[in-house]
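Collaborator request, handled under Task 6.
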Amino acid sequence: MKRLLVVAVFAFSCSAEAKSQAWWKRTQTAVARTRTAAALTRTPTLTATSGPSMTPTRTPSATPTRTATLRPTSTPTPVPSATIAPPTATRTSTLPPTATATRTTTPVPPSPTLTPVPVSPTPLPATPTPSPTRSATATPALTSTPTVTATIPATETPVPPTATPTRTPTPSGGGASWAKWYQGGGSFGDGGKSVAVDSTGNVAVGGKFIGTINFGGGSVTSAALDGFLASYSSAGTFRWARGVSSTGSDFVNGVAVDGAGGVAATGVFSGPSIDLGGGAQPNRGGNDILLAKYSSAGVWSWSKTLGGPGAEAGNAIASTATGDTIAGGYYSSGADMGGGVLPFAGSVDAFVTRYSPTGAHVWTRTLNGTSEEQVTAVGVDTGGNVYAAGVFAGSVDLGFGNVTSAGAHDSFLIKYAAASGVPIWAYRFGSTGDDWVRAIAIDTRTGDVLLTGQFTGTIDFGGPPLTSAGYEDIFLAKLNGMDGSHLWSKRFGSSSAPDYGYGVAVDGSGNVAITGFFAGQADFGGGAILAQVYDIFVAKYDSAGGYLWFKRYGDPPGLFDSQYGDAIAMGSSGTIFLTGHFVGTLDFGSAGRATSIFAGGSDGYLYSEEIPAPAGASTTTILLAGVVALGLAGAGYVVYRNSVGSA
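Structure tokens returned to the collaborator:
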């Protein structure tokens, strides 16, 4: 049964890339035919000159819609004690099962007095403030009204580019840039999965690799498919790195930094034990969660391996300024996050857990529904309140009574009180389609929540509904952190191929940056841009959702492979930090280019570029980026609240 769960979860986590690869194969065939036709029609007197692809100037209208999604935190496993001279390459390989679970929430902390209130564009009046000692009077009138008009074409007819696509002009004032390449040469691929930057500009990146890579301090060779954690200065100077290795498959899915620059990491491992820096720690069966904390200099502080006899994974992680660690993901029967064995409803259930600066268990909340649930993203505000976002199927209790998914998977966003873990409010978003929320970021000035991911059909965040142009489209939504109400929302995508949002970050002025990958022709606010198969994008908006700039990274002109943006962070001077994986050649301009080792599948990268903020802006912090997530679905959403504020 456990092996079946692992296979099912893995298949689920790889579904997005599988779709993109299928589309890519069809596109490659079409491109080959086009090239052949062009060759046959050439004559000695003619010189074919491909003109620039269209660059329509279209200004996307922001469709206000709200959806908060928290980044998954995971229960980390100890990282090898040695501070490894990091290899320069990391590979994105088969990710450990990112289980999709659906379960009825069985909060560990005492349940508060909850009174569900249907959400409306106008902020809802708060119901009595719950306290852990009061009896809960939850009246879950969870009646979602999914008026979804999700229509996914049964047959895809992508239009492969036959001419050199027009690239988006580089924003004026672009500054210094640098890139790190992770190319292990193994058969599964290398890649970065998460990135975070501290207040001094030091950047931490986590991911996976197979083979031998030099992260900057010497070569490191994996035992099998291994995870990695590496740190660089804002200028790209190597600081430290370490492998995350057991005799099985291991992955770092999430990294976060605290106020002192300490680095926390979570993920999954499958070997009988793993050393995260403080000695070997056991696996309790199947895939277990790894959770570890290191100082700014990479010195081991504490680590844990979490789980039970079944399949578990840490999907996401966040840190408070004072050093608390929040992790989220999924688990199966018999799992213990430090506070006792967790309730389990079957398939896989979702969890979010908080630990003190020394690694002591504070509280755990779970979702235990009729099918599958998992937390895919987590975040924390300056008051220490925790936001968890994820996906579920079937029926589940989000803390205020049962809700039922309208489609294959619906998404949720829950705000938990800092000290007690009591749910403050919860949102459910759903359509008749399958929608994913992949990343969350918190605006530290206001506590507002930013979400990104992809959706099909029509999605409603509380404002005007957003409808996809075809296939999966990208969404970006901003919600009020106090009550979850909609502030603004947008959609981006082409009508010819799936598009994905994987990472989101917020700077000190409230400006928002997102990354992911797109195909075909899409408009992110500055006019239509044509991708060469799948390309990485970065788009930035001001705090009100106004378009600032857009950048595309991919193959040099005339080449047609795929590149992916998996996570993004922003630094104090407006610098962006990107990580992900690529196939073919990835061109970062003055920072250089690299071509993947074909036999090894995809290769990884970490890229930094200084892009000054608008006049008067002073950027500082970022947070949290992609990791497998499911989420937000079409029209129809409901919010349930306990109270406004924290308990």
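The cover message to the collaborator said: "The chain is about 5% helix and 35% strand. The first helix runs from residue 2 to 13. Please let us know whether this matches your experimental observations."
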